[in-house]
Predict the 3D structure of the following.
Amino acid sequence: MSFIQTFWRNLTEGSGPLLVEMEGAQRHPYAAARLAQMVAQARAWLRAEGLRPGDRVAFVAPNSARWVALDLACLFDGLVSVPLYTRSTAEELRWTAADAQAKLLLADEETLGRLQEASGDEQALRIEPLDALFEHALPPRREPPAERGEGETVTLVYTSGTSGDPKGVMLTVGGFEYILPLVRRKLDRLMGGRPADERLFHYLPFCFAGSRLVLWVSLYGAVPLHLNSSLERLAEELRAARPHYVLNVPVLLKRVRGGVEQRFAERGPLVQRLHRAAMAAFEREVSGAPPRPADRWVRRAADLLLYRKVREGLGGSLRCLISGSAPLAEGTQRWFEALGIPVYQVYGLTETTGILTMDEPGEAVPGHVGRLIEGTEARVAEDGELRVRGPGIFPGYWQRPEATAAAFDEAGWFRTGDRAELDEATNTWRLVGRAKHVLVLASGHNVPPEPIEQALLEQLPGAEHVVLFGHGEPALVALVSGGGLSQADLDRAAERVNETLPHYKRVRAIALLPEPLSHEAGLLTANQKLKRAAIAERYAELLAELQRRARTTAAARPAASAAPTA
């Protein structure tokens, strides 16, 4: 049975809820029959409006049952869905829908107003309210879904556009046929078997490939997916949903860790002392160092008095947290593990149908992103880039033949753009950074910025982002965004990190930005990745000043070897 037929069966034959919209502590469940009715309404409207198999339908709205119903309506009727990000500008939304040659763009009420106010070259683009699909008198369309070939595109997911315009990644029936059952099996292993009342909580936008995979895996397994209604209510809704697992981004896990550490600090020196002692005991255990006589009792006391309350604050039923979209710092992963909450990393790209590697229970290596998924091959090219091939790899970019050709090497391996290393002892992968982000200093040394940025973030709990610069320059300098930090904090962090690095990788000057980096300011992509070129342009004067400061500092030091390292 195909995954599309499985979705259809779970909708038409299921009895329990498939979706639960959270509103604070209140739940609004959507049983299979109710969701099936909404899908039938959406299919009827789309057919009445002249949409036919192969047509592209763009839509933008927050996560909701209506979003899911429209997505399934497109899937069942052979349409190609083009989900867009609500925080994109009206001009970006119009451009993307036009690039996809969408027959129409459907939008929630708030976004619809922005789209109608904006002007652009895509005036011919038809824009309609999303609510229209569910507020009409047309007879519901309940025909079984159309058969679709393995090579057919089911959705266009646009890349974040860190450099150049975004590109539409064509994801196919065959890719999802391979990925969905594989991820379902891996989730079963992560949780030690499926709970009878399995619950999943989700807060990331469905328009991104990883989130879409979460949605479709939940539909594939008929697992109730609890939808966060607002990030401002995230903590309350997480406690109310009591999920067994949650997909996260590293920045949120870092915030959770910082918030908990702050609360421990506010409770006084005795709590802080107990927490530090328990963490030290945990580190001795995982490192294989000889335990101290009191380690067992210290950890038990910390768990009873401190950590159990943290777990309850995260719902109380978590069997694991899953982290993706970017590498998770080793220290943060170990911190959650010490609290009794395993964190498993996944790694993938939109072009790989969302996943390439995933941790295995009991075998996770902090700082690594797990093992390659079954059926996919990987190799590391001479320049350190990870290249892969397998049934989950996309066939190409929408109407971008040159970009598609450039994405694959002569032997047909997909170029991930990520520098990676395989740990032969554990068979797990570690990401070193993006190949195109490597900084080549004036000395000729090549420096991937991401490991140094992660190390600085570990030393700066209040930091949101750290961005390293120095391409073509004599020294590495860093910009930091975040609250509650002083220049002294930054200098101490740089000093501690520099102690672990060779001379050419040391951060010679560091500064705090006057404002946070944001998507609205054009400094982050839609999925919160750094737009390094835009940041460099915005803060060109500050970066020039940091280089001057670095040269002044260097003049007072003995000259170091300048032998370049490739």
About this structure: Residues 559-566 have pLDDT under 50 and may be disordered. Residues 3-244 form a domain with the Rossmann fold fold (CATH 3.40.50.12780). The first strand starts at residue 17 and ends at 23.
